[in-house]
Design brief:
Distance between the termini: 13 Å
Structural class: alpha/beta
Number of strands: 6
CATH class of the largest domain: Alpha Beta
Shape: globular
Radius of gyration: 17 Å
CATH superfamily of the largest domain: HAD superfamily/HAD-like
Largest sheet: 6 strands, parallel
Oligomer: single chain
Helix content: 40-55%
Number of domains: 2
CATH architecture of the largest domain: 3-Layer(aba) Sandwich
CATH topology of the largest domain: Rossmann fold
Strand order of the largest sheet: 3-2-1-4-5-6
Number of helices: 9
Order of helices and strands: EHHHHEHEHEHEHEH
């Protein structure tokens, strides 16, 4: 029996939701002189870096986000993440116990692991590297692969099938922290384990049954899988 366990990054492996928002908001202020700090991210159709960029252009700026704009935003967001790291490494802390838990799961023969994130590739890799998450042997999909959470997750499932030489998984489990993860899991019919590192209660309101704050109780989290 083979299970595939997929992890989101922001708010799930790394406690970087606030850091990520700061990097995005600063980028739009610097590049286009617009303030998007009040943006309701849950109203964005595709809660991914690409989807948010397109939403801001269409709704706030009033035009399409072209390839040149997208490259500029990616570069600026990445630079802002670097600046925030240089300002304080604590901006990129792991969710407590995440790195150790991932290493523990790698020892389980019945489990296959993967990462699916709404971040762009360079941003995703940077967050994982500086927070001490060892991901290099894992299949990973991001917002450079697809604009939607569903598409990103489908992409990493196919990657995992090839890497682990598995035609189909007996069960797929996703660790995620947002309403967008809940919607994706429902759309694909996969099990969601919620991560509520800041105790905002949003996942509980949506009806998610299994919610953790962090990975400090390794055995308890493993039992949910």
């Amino acid at each position: 029996m083979k299970k595939l366990v997929i992890f989101d990054i922001d708010g799930t492996l790394t406690n970087t939701n606030e850091t990520d928002h700061k990097a995005f908001e600063k980028a739009y202020l610097e590049l286009y002189d617009i303030d998007v700090a009040g943006l309701d991210y849950e109203e964005v159709e595709n809660y991914t870096d690409t989807g948010i960029a397109q939403h801001i252009f269409e709704v706030v700026i009033g035009r399409t986000c072209g390839p040149v704009d997208m490259r500029k935003i990616k570069k600026k967001v990445y630079q802002n993440l670097l600046d925030l790291y240089n300002e304080s490494e604590s901006n990129f802390a792991e969710v407590k116990g995440a790195a150790d838990f991932l290493e523990f799961l790698k020892t389980r023969d019945e489990l296959c692991l993967a990462i699916a994130t709404g971040c762009w590739e360079h941003s995703a890799n940077f967050k994982l590297n500086v927070s001490g998450i060892d991901y290099e042997e894992l299949p990973i999909s991001n917002s450079d692969n697809d604009i939607s959470r569903v598409g990103i997750t489908k992409h990493v499932i196919e990657q995992a099938k090839k890497q682990y030489e598995c035609a189909a998984f007996d069960e797929i489990i996703y660790f995620g922290d947002g309403a967008w993860d809940f919607k994706m899991a429902q759309a694909l019919g996969i099990k969601l384990i919620g991560v509520d590192v800041n105790n905002n209660g949003r996942l509980k309101e949506l009806g998610v049954q299994n919610i953790i704050k962090d990975y400090s109780n390794k055995e308890a989290v493993f039992n949910l899988i």
